[in-house]
Amino acid sequence: MGWVVKIIGLCFVVGFALSVFEIDPASILTNTWATVRDVFDLAVGVLRWAVPYILVGAVIVVPIAAVSLLLRWTRARRGP
Asked: Dihedral sign, CA of 19, 24, 29, 31?
């Protein structure tokens, strides 16, 4: 019975996400190629929006991660 609730919950989440992105379930069935193209266009739009933020964040995160990795590596080489 638990998996039924999980499936219903997953269906709700996916249905809600589709409605947020204005994807009509009927168009998925009747006009599949246009729906695939719309989803692709949506993904490209998300990437165009996200990539500048990722690059700006990488300016800070990558050097900190590199220093952290270097410190862990040097501690591991020294031994206990």
From this structure: negative
**Token reading at 21:** 């992105």
pTM above 0.70, yes or no: no
Sequence-distant (≥ 6) Cβ neighbours of residue 42 within 8 angstroms: 21
What region, left, alpha or beta, does residue 12 occupy, with left being phi > 0 and alpha being psi -120 to 50 degrees? alpha
Across the chain, what does the average pLDDT equal? Answer: 88
The C-alpha torsion from 20 through 34 and 54 to 49, rounded to 10°, is: -70
CA distance 62 to 54: 11
